[in-house]
Structures are given as C-alpha cells and as structure tokens.
Design brief:
single chain, 7% strand, 5 strands
Length: 295
Amino acid sequence: MTRETDMQLDTTLHRRIENALHTLHPAERRVAEAVLADPAQVRSSSITALADALSVSQTTIMRFCRSLGYSGYAEFKLAVVEALASEQKLTFAGSHSEVLANDDIQTVQAKVLQMNMKALAETSASVDSRLLERAISVLLQADKIEIVGVGSSLPIALDLYYRLLRTGLNPRCSVDSHFQAINASVLCERDACMAISYSGLTRETLDAVRAAKEAGAATLCITNAGNSPLARLVDIALVTRSLKTKWLDEAVTGRIVQLSVLDVICVAIAQRRQAKLQDIFSRIDRVIVRKQEEP
C-alpha cells in the first residue's frame, strides 16, 4: 500500500509547478516546494489548514494557485487530486473509459467502479468544507427541514429524510411535487429547505425552493451543476462531481456522490447531537424490534 508521504504528482503538474518556482515570491515558493514534497497534504487539507501547516497566509496560497493558472484553491486542489490518481494509476481495467458494447462483466465492473472512485475524489476536492459547515449549522438550528427532489433525486431525498429523522431532527419529505411546494410555502424563517437535483434545472424543485425562500426559510441544495438556476437560487449550494455514461439516462455516479455528501452531513449532525442520540436510538430500536418476527 502506498503511504500518503510517498505519493507523487503526475509529470505534467509536477513540471508546471517546478517551472513556476523561479517566478514566485519567497512565501509562494515555500508553498510550491511543500506541494512538490508532499502533494497528499493538499488533497486532505482545506486552505485554512494548509496555510496554518505552512505558516503562510491564505492569500499567499491563493496567489500561488493563480500563478499556475487556476482560479483558486478549490480548482488547484481538484487538479492535485486528479494528478495523484493519475500517477498512482488507481484503476481496475488499466484506465478509466466508457463502457463499450462488447465489454464483459469484469470490465464493466472495473469501469463503473473506477468512475465512482473518480467522482468521489473530485467531489471531495470540490465541496467547500466551509459551506458544509454552514449547511450543517443551518440544519441543526432549523425547526423544520423540508426536503425536496423529484425523479431520480427523490430516493436520495427520502434517504436523507430517514437519516435526519433518526438523529432527532424534524425533517419532512413528500413523494408528490405539489405537496413539496405546498409544504415549502408554509415554512418560516426558523425553517430550512434542502433541495436535491443533479441538473439544477428541474422546474418542480425550483418551484418548491422559490416558495421556501418567499416564506423566509433558509435554502440549501446538492447539485452537480454549480452554475445552474438552483445553485444560484439557494443560500448554500453543495456542488458534486459525477460522470455520465451512454448506457443510462442519468449520471451513473450521481447517486454515489450525493449520498456520500449527505453521509458527511448526517454523521456530523449525529456527532454534534451525541448527548441526545442514545435515548433516540433506544426508542427507535424498541419500535423496530416489535416489527421483527420471532426467529
């Protein structure tokens, strides 16, 4: 198994950083040298954590990223994640590629799992931990949480409803888009509305979120489209990364990355409510036991 400190960038990004060294100011050069020596720390660190570890300012790190042509730390971090994956050759079938019509089941398995791995790595790099923290805070403080989503996003919405319910919060989720919009319209400023939409274009979901905003509720979403109408509409947008395949009419990795981000949120909420969870879990377990048949 490769140790974190043994990980190296692929040749392209490594040379890009090396070639820029002589143009950088001393503090930025220190960032560059640290990245070359241990690129894995970028993958696992927020900009705040990296700045503290290197004893530089966040502004210095931003200048370093922009000197390489990236818009900021998030884009640079994503490039590092992809470069590490490329160098390690984390594949099952030798490379990530589209599933072909004549692929056998072993190859299909390898390619689909590789797509999931790539999407999770890119999502880990793209989701801003500060936005995650804000989303968790909003959900913890909300009196009611209306969860909206239709089509292939509805099962994800229902899963979030079930898991938030088990943490003792007060979520709601209807399978009917009309009820979703009505429920959203009667929220208030103490409530929150969480929308799930891969495209960020679904009219029913947008209608419900607009109704929630008009009612004064906080609005959040998980989407794969950072520039979509939904992402622009909500207060907090958590943007995932996923890949499409011609064999399905949706992103094959979309559910995996959405559920993974929601896992992070639900675990963090449970972590912060641990003092209350023992009683909640005990009560739920008693109900579940009564539902089970004798062996």
